[in-house]
Write a structure and sequence with these properties.
The complex is a heterodimer of chains A (296) and B (276). Chain A is of the alpha/beta class. In chain A, 27% of the residues lie in helices and 16% in strands. Chain A has one domain: TIM Barrel, CATH 3.20.20. Classes of the chains: A alpha/beta (296), B alpha/beta (276).
Chain lengths: 296, 276
């Protein structure tokens, strides 16, 4: 798709995506608190004082209850690293009473005990539980260059622990190191083959684009202009049917959680059911790739 | 993605009333199963037979489906496959996002598109997006995917009660009948309402059995839902698929009852029950 992207961030009136329906609740449960510090992290998460604080447990529970009343279809937990949150299992239990639930994790906090707990939830819950484990390369050295030393081994171990307990983890990968591979396989194929070789009989792989924000933000990154969207169905953007609860309020999409211009409400979910301003360079990525942060 | 409003102008507002109906989805070119269904439903004293769409895809010889639908007096609505064929689209609009799923979906759609006559595509284009009927005192809304989106997947483990209540409230209905996923389920809600995914007759439902399923709903005077297994000559179907050059993965599913493709949209729970 060829797009003339000429406007600088913050100048002029940004286009707006309509709010069509409430399908997906994202809970930014640990804010930007993470035990890893990946080079491409979309919200610059890390182990130091987080710029976006973890969400209080009672606020997360309140959002789950309100979302259920509003007819939410699915719930996602993200961060930061959700498994650093002390109440994560109780929160997952509450979410699974309301809707199918997914956790996005780097996998490094999932040991055998946690895998057992998740397996118990998977079996007993009313709705489906999915765990998405992030990797960036099937090669440990390349992966750890992005995600930190030792991250690969721990994540692969988490995938194995979850698989052994029947949880069918989804591996989420970006294309950040794709150019370094010359074997002709796509990133999707490479991960699928890797998982099969690890004995994962039902390999599940989701490829995400790399976004121009967080640690990869540049001052001259382009933004969308009204003219770019002529003939484009804005209802296909994920902000047309998702909302994110994070510290400070409700935001348009999980990519932009915590950013003031993406904030649509100071607390109530329903109050955020208004059009979302496509003001950020990462909106260009959603527009160009048609991506969604959901599982499918 | 096509957005359809539950009270849109394609809803039949003159409500016919029935006591007992048969409902099925996803023919997927499986004329043999459709023939078996018509014979079976006739024996079960149903007053009408409804099809919730997706006549084509997956199987062989698409044009053989339409005479059976007409001769059987089947009341059909449009599925995403039907909409895409009627509109001449290059994609089935099934809603897959995984590269492997899309690879097989493309083969399936290109075959069906090339082998569906212009007349039949036009007929598919004439089908309504929803139907409303009464089942005794109960107001029934029929859709393909969901009441709001034609290709929305409503899986059993991934469709919350709260969402179903909202669908039924917005549509002013007591019973929701849908298909699209390929696996049947029935959920009576605490409100006394019902949601039913009627399953498909085009391919088995990923449980290692070769039969397919359709649904009979009866006003008793509450709503009674019965899932009926349909046995048909699956070996002949698989052989026809092979002869038509369709992927061996497709006929393997027909012969074994296990899905081999289009798996990535399955929620974790449904995926864990299958072989692949």
């Amino acid at each position: 798709m060829s797009v003339a992207l000429t406007m600088a961030p913050g100048l002029g009136a940004a286009p707006v995506a309509p709010f069509l329906r409430f399908s997906t609740l994202w809970i930014q449960i640990t804010g930007t608190w993470c035990n890893l510090e990946c080079t491409h992290c979309i919200n610059s998460s890390g182990p130091r004082e987080p710029w976006l604080k973890p969400l209080r447990t009672e606020l997360a529970l309140s959002a789950i209850r309100e979302a259920e009343e509003l007819g939410v279809k699915e719930i996602y937990f993200t961060g930061g690293e959700p498994f650093l949150h002390g109440d994560i299992l109780a929160l997952l239990g509450a979410a699974l009473e309301a809707a199918p639930t997914t956790v996005l994790t780097n996998g490094t906090c999932i040991d055998a005990i946690m895998a057992d707990e998740l397996a118990a939830l998977f079996v007993s819950a009313r709705y489906s539980l999915s765990i998405r484990v992030s990797l960036d390369d099937t090669d440990p050295v390349r992966n750890d260059r992005v995600r930190g030393e030792g991250a690969f081994a721990k994540a692969v171990e988490a995938i194995r622990l979850l698989h052994d307990r029947g949880l069918l983890p989804i591996v989420t990968a970006t294309e950040i190191t794709s150019a370094e591979h010359t074997d002709g396989r796509s990133t999707y194929e490479r991960f699928r083959d890797f998982l099969l070789a690890q004995g994962i009989e039902k390999p599940r792989v989701k490829i995400m684009p790399v976004f121009a924000l967080g640690r990869l933000a540049r001052p001259d990154d382009p933004v969308l202009h009204e003219d770019d969207l002529v003939g484009f169905d804005r209802g296909t953007l994920q902000c047309a049917e998702s909302r994110v609860v994070a510290d400070g309020g409700v935001y348009a999409c999980p990519i932009l959680a915590g950013l003031p211009r993406a904030r649509l409400s100071d607390g109530a979910l329903e109050a955020s059911f208004v059009g979302a301003t496509l003001y950020h360079p990462s909106c260009v990525t959603c527009f160009q790739t048609g991506m969604t942060c959901t599982n499918s | 993605m096509r957005h359809v409003l539950p009270d849109g102008d394609d809803v039949h507002e003159q409500l016919a009333e029935y006591r007992r109906i048969a409902v099925f989805g996803g023919v997927y070119n499986n004329t043999l199963a459709l023939h078996a269904l018509l014979e079976d439903a006739r024996r079960r004293d149903v007053e009408a037979v409804f099809c919730l769409g997706d006549m084509g895809g997956f199987g062989p010889h698409p044009d053989r489906v339409f005479p059976l639908l007409r001769e059987g007096g089947i009341l059909a609505i449009q599925g995403n496959y039907d909409a895409s064929l009627a509109q001449g689209k290059t994609d089935c609009g099934c809603g897959y996002t995984d590269p492997r799923d899309n690879h097989f979906a493309r083969i399936s759609y290109e075959y069906t598109f090339a082998h569906t006559s212009r007349e039949h595509k036009a007929w598919l284009g004439s089908l309504p997006g929803h139907r409303r009927v009464r089942l005794g005192p109960h107001r029934v809304l029929m859709c393909h995917g969901s009441p709001r989106v034609i290709n929305e997947f409503l899986w059993e483990s991934a469709t919350p009660d709260g969402l179903l209540r909202r669908f039924l409230r917005d549509a002013a209905a007591d019973v929701l009948l849908c298909t699209h996923t390929g696996i049947k389920w029935h959920r009576p809600l605490a409100t006394g309402q019902h949601a039913v995914n009627v399953g498909v007759i085009g391919r088995p439902e990923n449980d290692g059995s070769t039969n397919v399923w359709y649904t009979i709903a009866t006003a008793t005077p509450d709503v009674s839902v019965e899932f009926v297994p349909l046995h048909y000559d699956f070996e002949t179907l698989a052989r026809q698929m092979d002869q038509e050059g369709l992927p061996a993965e497709f006929s393997e599913t027909v012969r074994t009852g296990w899905w081999t493709t289009c798996l990535e949209n399955l929620p974790s729970r449904e995926r864990s029950r299958g072989k692949f």
